[in-house]
Amino acid sequence: MRRRLCPKEALFTPSFIAVCSANLLFFIASFMMVPVLPIYLLDGLHAAQAAGARLSLHMIGALVMRPISGFLADQFPRKMLFLVCGILFAAQFEGYLLFNALALVGIVRALHGMSFGALSTSAATLAVDVIPIAKLGTGIGLYGMMGSLAMALGPMIGMLVLEAGSYDAVF
User: Fold this and answer.
1) Distances from the Cα of 35 to the Cα of 20, 73, 159, angstroms
2) Each residue of 158-170: b (16+ CB within 10 Å) or e?
3) Where are the alpha helices (DSSP H) in 44-101?
4) Which pLDDT tens digit goes with each residue over 84-103?
5) pLDDT tens, 14-56?
């Protein structure tokens, strides 16, 4: 779809705000796990090296899924893809509590990374769709800032929730 350059189009539309907010929230949820999951695995008396290997499976899953999800975003309605990926992403947090065996945590971690990769890719395509072309640089910058903000807030929120509650509360 070719879009026109119209400098008077508003950037802060309800759609843009919704996509940025969703991006912020799912990135916060993901970054909450950064400090908590290693503690969870080590509390389960898993060796540090094995726990570290399981943690890396998240990003490996995301890396594998990003090109595939980009293709899917071009083939299917983007909102539907985003919603399906969001539901899968949210549902997989429960897997950390259900499967404490290290091998199963690795599978959950890889699947969670795949849904994260698909969700973040589909969210980015939605963002580009709702940003006016005359404000594309500003819009992409603000959209990307949500990931940076989540990286700053997520680990702190994860540790605060863990200290105030339990692993159940974080996951």
Assistant:
1) 24, 31, 7
2) bbebbeeeebeeb
3) 48-75, 78-91, 93-98
4) 999 999 999 888 888 767 77
5) 999 999 999 999 999 999 999 998 888 888 766 778 888 888 9
